[in-house]
Amino acid sequence: MKKLLPLALVATLFGCAQTENNQVTYQKPNYETYITQGQTFPITQFTNAQGELVALAEDKRKLVLLFATWCSDSQRFVKQLMASPLIADPDLQIIAIGREENAQSLVNFSEKFATNFTMVADPNRQIYSQFANAGVPRIILLDNQNRVVSTLIGEAPNTIEKVLW
């Protein structure tokens, strides 16, 4: 039992930097973000979990969430997002991209957390890998012209406060 306690502590400290199926390593990943403030977001449309094409709105700000359904930090951020005034903002489009998730896992997550925003499956990290190397949730805020306003790693309990803009 005493041998398992340090391992459990190390696993907890790594947050959601690993994938669900990967084993925990003893070196924290070097978080890299591949898109910076002022850059234009390179994707203009997605296919949602229902198989429908969803375009980035031309007249709205956007919150792009890169997350994993199994990640406690991602779950906390979604709960905070759903309780925030952002969820009812008619001038904000929210798109959540499930890293290593399939459409059914996103539908299940959406039902469980009562979300009302677009969910996009990214089973092979094809989308995620354009923006980061490790860590979820990742939040990318875009202006009306799809330029990056800021990027955040949402592992802190109060990340939603940084998003309210």
Outline of the structure:
This protein is of the alpha/beta class. The chain is built from four helices and seven strands.
* Structural domain count: 1
Instruction: Report, as a whole number of angstroms, the end-to-end distance.
Output: 47 Å
Low-pLDDT segments, ≥5 res: 1-13
Second rung of CATH, namely the architecture: 3-Layer(aba) Sandwich
Percent of residues in β-strands: 15-25%
Largest sheet: 5 strands, mixed
* Helix percent band: 10-25%
Q: Indicate the structural class.
A: alpha/beta
The dominant shape is globular
Using the CA coordinates, give the radius of gyration: 16 Å
Question: What's the name of the CATH homologous superfamily?
Answer: Glutaredoxin
CATH T-level topology: Glutaredoxin
Written as H for each helix and E for each strand, in order along the chain, the element string is HEEEHEHEEEH
Task: Provide the spatial order of strands within the biggest beta sheet.
Answer: 5-4-3-6-7
Q: Could you give the count of β-strands? A: 7
- Output the CATH class name: Alpha Beta
Q: Quick check: average pLDDT?
A: 88
